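Title: Comparing notes on inverse folding

I've been comparing how different people in this forum approach sequence design from structure. To keep things fair, I'm posting one structure and asking everyone to reply with a full sequence. Here's the target:
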């Protein structure tokens, strides 16, 4: 059943939606959470939509699997758009050599924090 929904405007003019249904709230399954915890990342992934936006955590995950091909210190943990794009372009280049396609449209949605895209990307990366 649908949960009562309402919107409110905060003091900064940002609309916040309350009462999302279960279908709207895609969460990471336990297996993926255990995988991420086992990687001993510098930052934990609590909200994939926000945490994966700049590509830093994705680069850190990939550095665990490709330590000679990716230097985590060359990635920015920043919210500036040009740095997020730079991070994702380098991630795309690395993954394309490993037969893992990340279309520009997909990573642009992730860096702009589109709903569900980051969660789906993490699921694909885990598989």
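Reply #1:
Here's my take.
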């Amino acid at each position: 059943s649908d949960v009562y929904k309402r919107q409110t405007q905060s003091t900064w003019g940002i609309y916040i939606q309350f009462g999302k249904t279960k279908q709207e709230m895609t969460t990471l399954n336990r297996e993926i959470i255990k995988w991420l915890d086992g990687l001993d990342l510098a930052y934990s992934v609590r909200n994939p939509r926000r945490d994966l936006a700049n590509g830093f955590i994705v680069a850190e995950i990939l550095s665990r699997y490709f330590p000679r091909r990716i230097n985590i210190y060359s990635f920015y943990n920043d919210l500036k758009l040009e740095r997020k794009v730079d991070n994702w372009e380098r991630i795309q280049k690395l993954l394309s050599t490993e037969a893992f396609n990340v279309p520009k449209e997909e990573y642009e949605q992730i860096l702009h924090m589109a709903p569900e895209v980051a969660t789906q990307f993490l699921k694909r990366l885990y598989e």
